[in-house]
Specification:
Elements (H helix, E strand, L loop, with lengths): L7 E7 L7 E6 L5 E3 L2 H5 L11 H12 L9 H29 L1
Antiparallel strand pairs: 1-2, 2-3
Helix pairs in contact: 2-3
The structure holds zinc ion.
The site of zinc ion has 8 residues, from helix 1 and helix 2.
C-alpha cells in the first residue's frame, strides 16, 4: 500500500532502445510530474529550457486524445506539459540553425 509521501505512478513507458526496461511517469510529492528515464534525469538545460522528455511528451499527448483521462492529471497540466515540449524543440531548432549559419 503506497503511503501519501510516495510518488504516484501515472503511467509506464517502455524503453525503445531496451525492451527489458521501462520508465515511470510519476507525480512527485510536490505535485510535479516527472519521468524516471536517464534522459530526464541527466539532461542539461540551457537558458530558458524546462525539463521534459519524449515519454512525458507522449504521455501528455495521449492524455489529450484520450476521451477518459486514465489518471489524475488536469487539463492545464497536460497543456503546460505539451507547451513545454514544443518550446523546447523550438529553442533547439533555432539554436541548430544559428549554429549552422555561424559556420557558413
Ligand atoms: Zn522519459
Amino acid at each position: 500500500m503506497a503511503t501519501k509521501s510516495e510518488p504516484t505512478v501515472l503511467a509506464v513507458a517502455p524503453s525503445k532502445t531496451d525492451p527489458s526496461k521501462s520508465y515511470e511517469i510519476r507525480r512527485g510529492k510536490d505535485g510535479t510530474i516527472y519521468c524516471t528515464c536517464p534522459a530526464w534525469r541527466y539532461q542539461r538545460l540551457k537558458k530558458g529550457e524546462k525539463r521534459t522528455c519524449k515519454h512525458l511528451a507522449a504521455f501528455f499527448a495521449q492524455q489529450l486524445t484520450s476521451p477518459e483521462p486514465t489518471c489524475a492529471v488536469t487539463k492545464s497540466e497536460v497543456a503546460s506539459g505539451l507547451r513545454r515540449h514544443k518550446e523546447r524543440w523550438a529553442l533547439r531548432t533555432r539554436r541548430n540553425q544559428e549554429h549552422k549559419e555561424a559556420q557558413q
